[in-house]
Structure to design on (278 residues):
């Protein structure tokens, strides 16, 4: 954890998200096909002072500024990540003061052009915090619509990946969207135009000062010299590149989706990053 500014430095259906193993020809048997949303990917979130797990006395390891797995409960100082897919949505949350706390806040995910989003923008309904309008939209019935950019991809074992650890989703809301755009800008400037999932990102956190308090945001570094190698002439792929391609196809087919229910309202709209005011 450091203190700095928003800078990023620089169709076959797959059947498994783990590398082939000693099972040989039996590897993946029984995992063929799959229904939409069969795999629910956990979120990696930045812990803030108000995050419920930070206030849990049984979790002394969960401190503000660390990264947190919303399903396994694992805590990380930093992570290495291969992005496989990106998305732009508005996530609808029930406010905590209306029963949305304790993980019960998630309502739905909406595309930017959805009627409920367009209606909120047209009506100029914004959440008010400390007497000022924030960038969080409100539905007609008072739910919050949080603009969210996400990377879905693979946690990997090191800055020179040899294996994938877990498929996860990393969300960027309000003040954190600047880090998402910075990462995409860095990725788009890589020579040779490698696919999104050939890149390796290093995630740490940094403390950022806002008018109404401090909040941790991402500090992302694109490891340009650690790109996953291109496929060989015979089509053989690096195992992590192969898994990343498989996950990308699963997401596009709707077989792997974000586990929004594992998040809580506090993790998304009470972090301090919705303190961006007009």
């Amino acid at each position: 954890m450091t203190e700095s500014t928003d800078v990023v430095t620089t169709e076959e259906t797959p059947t498994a998200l783990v590398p082939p193993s000693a099972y040989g020809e039996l590897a993946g048997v029984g995992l063929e096909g799959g229904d939409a949303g069969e795999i629910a990917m956990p979120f990696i979130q930045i812990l803030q002072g108000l995050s419920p797990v930070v206030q849990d006395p049984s979790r002394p390891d969960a401190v503000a500024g660390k990264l947190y797995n919303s399903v396994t409960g694992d805590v990380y100082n930093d992570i290495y990540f291969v992005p496989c897919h990106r998305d732009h949505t508005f996530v609808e949350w029930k406010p905590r003061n209306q029963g949305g706390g304790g993980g019960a806040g998630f309502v739905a995910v909406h595309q930017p052009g959805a009627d409920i989003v367009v209606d909120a923008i047209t009506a100029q309904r914004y959440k008010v915090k400390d007497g000022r309008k924030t960038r969080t939209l409100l539905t007609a019935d008072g739910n919050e619509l949080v603009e969210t950019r996400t990377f879905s991809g693979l946690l990997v074992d090191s800055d020179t990946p040899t294996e994938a650890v877990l498929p996860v989703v990393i969300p960027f809301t309000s003040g954190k969207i600047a880090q998402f755009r910075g990462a995409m800008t860095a990725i788009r400037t890589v020579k040779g135009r490698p696919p999104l999932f050939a890149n390796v990102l290093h995630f740490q956190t940094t403390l950022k000062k806002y008018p109404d308090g401090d909040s941790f945001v991402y500090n992302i570094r694109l490891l340009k010299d650690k790109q996953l190698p291109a496929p060989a002439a015979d089509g053989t792929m690096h195992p992590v590149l192969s898994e990343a391609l498989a996950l990308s196809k699963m997401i596009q087919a709707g077989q792997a989706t974000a586990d929004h229910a594992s998040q809580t309202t506090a993790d998304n709209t009470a972090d301090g990053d919705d303190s961006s005011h007009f």
